[in-house]
Amino acid sequence: MSSSLSSGVQVGSGEQVQAIIDELYRLYPEARYDLDFTTPLELFVATQLAAQCTDERVNAVTKTLFQKYRSAADYAGANQEELEQDIKPTGFYRKKANQLRVSCQYLLDHYGGEVPGTMAELVRIPGIARKTANVILGNAFGVVDGFIVDTHVDRLSKRFGWSKQNDIVKIERDLMALVPREHWLEVAHRIIYHGRAVCNARKPLCAQCTLASYCPSAMLDQ
DNA sequence: CTCCCGATAT
DNA sequence: ATATCAGGAG
Length: 222
Known about the structure:
single chain, mainly alpha, Endonuclease Iii, domain 2, Endonuclease III, domain 1, DNA-binding, Endonuclease III, iron-sulfur, 4 iron, 4 sulfur cluster binding
């Protein structure tokens, strides 16, 4: 079932997984979550804005947004059109503005305007699914209940041969089984760094990738 | 599966 | 011209 790599290691074996993890830590010792925030609510807002948008653009918007809107009530009571303009550069701005108002109203109705700190509570909030919940839990509360599966983790998991699933939840389950729990958050951050810098969607730079000997998708003849 | 948004890379 | 960008809902 499992195939052998140029390194002689089997795809999906503990040896391959650990080799990739080790190299990711070596490559990106300082990897962290790149959205700027100082409170759980700020992370709650920034993460919703991050859909299909670079972190850089989100940070450019939140720099002033967080000065203007300081509480869940500020977002819930915001004027839709005004909030749209405040977040416009992040894209999907009508949907995101509405989603911020609705999700923050939900925080007011159920949690006194605070962001809850459990997976079960977070995924009940409209606009919050497991990816966003995992980001909030891991980065604002230090709670690691799952594996962040965003567009990069989805893509690299398949390239590494760690999952053949298309359903995000099934990919997350595969990763939780393969990667030791203490590495879930840190490895997710580093997979994302590598996905941006080297293993990008359009034209992965396999020839200069130090993971290539452990990667069944490496295309070294380019 | 499509839609939401527009800038940017290829 | 087309795919992609730290997604989620209908």
